[in-house]
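For the sake of transparency, this paper describes our internal protein records without simplification. The remainder of this section carries one protein's record, kept here as part of the documentation:
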Amino acid sequence: MTLSIWIYSGNIIAQTLPVSNQLMQDYIRIKQLESEIDSNASLFTKPISSSILNTLKANSDFAFIPKNLLKEDGFIEFKILPLAFNQQFNSKNQYGWNDGLMIPAKGYQNYVSAGFYMKAGPLSVQIQPEFIYAQNPEFLRGNDKIASDRYTNYVSLSNYSADLPNYYEKPDFTLFGFGQSSIRLNFKAFSVGISNENLWWGPGRKNSLLMSNTARGFKHFTLNTLRPIATPIGSFEGQIISGRLENSGSPNSKFYNPEWRYLSGMVFSYQPRWVPGLFVGLSRAFQIYHSDLSGIGDYIPLFQPFEKLKTNEDYINRDQVTSVFARLLIPKAQAEVYVEYGRNDHSVDIRDFSMEPDHSRAYIVGFQKLTNLGTRNEKLLLSAELTQLSQSPTRFVREAGSWYVHSINQGYTNRGEVIGAGIGPGGNIQTIDLSWINGIKKMGIQFERFVHNDEFYQILRAGSSSNNGRWVDLSAGILFNWDYKDFVINSKLLGVQSYNYLWQSGYYGTDRRNAFNIHANIGLSYYIK
């Protein structure tokens, strides 16, 4: 169970809308479908800045335009940021993602965050540290422990390895972090600075191929736009970052290189003037061990060619992931469709890409549709998203590692969790939601099918371990958001049935291992007027 209390001073969301505030992220997206927020904003780069939030129409049913506590629109501003208390509980095993500082764990977790935002002219400072306590009991015993260790050995000790421990650290785990803090210089539509905020790139709602808030935020330099930049040919948005990725430090992780890694990344999007509602974008990220940094090309490799024949990438201990994406906003239909396609490995050249476009690929496809229910505010929301990370059968003749697992021993991770899609290497997931909404109020149902690392299953079946089966989680639950005066409650309650838990199928006389988990989220927000 997750219990969260958010306290705001005035109608303040803060200078940016944090990636962790999923309720408001979804709300902003729905407001754009209803044509109540800037239709030129792609929403591809998060956190969302107040420049975009300020376009929300003043007569909106839940307008939360930031207000200055000292002097409105003045040279000096001061804002109290949310005070947040979150509690989480999993009944059977670790489950869930997109939860930032929280760790993958069974049992109870507690999260606390507070802070402030201040601005003096172009300088802005946001201090919002975070703290967690996790009960984190050991939950792997007997055959489950054997099966889990087999997977950990595969992930940690194979040619393509990753820092993804099956049990994170130790019981009674505590952690204090910088959280959603930043120091920036802002000039018109641009911002440059140092940040520890979680990032989200691309159109996905449930998953993102390159950047999400599954892992905790990492320290990085950022140069980004604060709002769409209008030009005669359309609008542009983007971000360039360079940062430091850390290891998990968990004694259960078995990779052999303890170095920290340097990450450089970028995301750009374009909204063509001649096609209103269409957004296209590109994201790219490189990581390299800090001891291997030797020149400007290692610090800023983002604009190197995509074709291996034009680079020496195969001879450098460096990883890259790339994605392209698009989103079509259809305000008249109150609908959107979106797609993201990514590669975990360069193509040799254009011919190679045209022959095998599915080599090392991953993709996300989704849509949302609002339907009026007879009143101005009451509507029906249908949402669906599919994420496919497992590779095509070509991997058996042309291995490139799983998504997020390549030549860097730790994989595409920070502190033992994937930076991108929280379902992890080789995972596939399909989600569908059907909800009644009225402003921020929401009542709905969710169904989900999650296949854990399907590539590991294929390896087991191809080898001598033919008694193993595909590990599939089927979940169903309810969604509930409600506001009353200055209070907002949001919740999700899921029952998760795991079949062939940890790939233990029961075939050929072995024990069948199914498991059932309760995963719940409850949030309470209070807005001080």
In short: Residues 142-157 form the longest helix (16 residues). Residues 3-528 form a domain with the Porin fold (CATH 2.40.160.130).
